[in-house]
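## Example record

The block below lists the input lines for one assembly entry, exactly as stored, with component labels intact.
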Amino acid sequence: QLQLQESGPGLVKPSETLSLTCTVSGGSISSTNYYWGWIRQPPGKGLEWTGNIYYSGSTFYNPSLKSRVTMSVDTSKNQFSLKLSSVTAADTAVYYCARGLSSSWNYFDYWGQGTLVTVSS
Amino acid sequence: DIQMTQSPSSLSASVGDRVTITCRASQSISSYLNWYQQKPGKAPKLLICAASSLQSGVPSRFSGSGSGTDFTLTISSLQPEDFATYYCQQSYSIPYTFGQGTKLEIK
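Predicted C-alpha cells for the full assembly:
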C-alpha cells in the first residue's frame, strides 16, 4: 500500500522560506506513470494546487506562486520536496503531498495526511 | 485559469436521500474532472476520475456524469459516513483548479 508522509517545520516566520519533504513508501517515486504534487488548504478554506514534479525533475507550478516555489525530487531517498520563499500569513495552510497518475486522465489518487504550516513571528 | 464553480455550497440531507452536487467549469474541460471527498481533519479522498469512472473501493452509490463544462456527482442513497465536504477538480490544464467545495450536512 502506497503511503506518503509530509515532514517539516510547523512554524515559519514571515519573509522566510517554508520547506517541506514528502517521503513515499510502498512504491517507487521513479516511475514514468506518475507525478508528485503539492496541494494546500488554508484553515477553513478550499484546496489550492501548488505544483507537480516528475521523477525526472520536470516541474509545473501554479502561476500564482511561481516566482516563490521550487520543487525537487530525491530518487535515492524516495522523497520530493517543496520550498516556498518570502512567506506571509496568507501561506498558512495544511500542505498535502499527493501522487498523480500521468495517464490519459490526470488525478491525485494517494494523499499524505497533511501537515499544518503556520506563518507567524 | 479555469474557474470551477460548485453548487450548492452547502446542503442538508437525511440518511437515505438522493443527493446531487453540480460543478461547472468556466470553459470546456472535456472529461478531465475529478471528485474528492474530504472529512474534517483528513486528506481528500479520490472518488471519481475522468468525470464518471468510480475509483476502486468506492461504493457504487456514488456516480459521476457530465462532459464539457457541466458535471454532477450523485449519491443515490446517503449513508452516515457520506457526510463530508466534496470538491471537484479539473485536470484539463495547468493550473489545476478545484471547486470551492460542497459541505454535506445531516438534516
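Chain A touches chain B at residues 39, 46-49, 60, 62-64, 96, 98, 101, 104-109, 111-114 (CB under 8 Å). Chain A has a mean pLDDT of 95.
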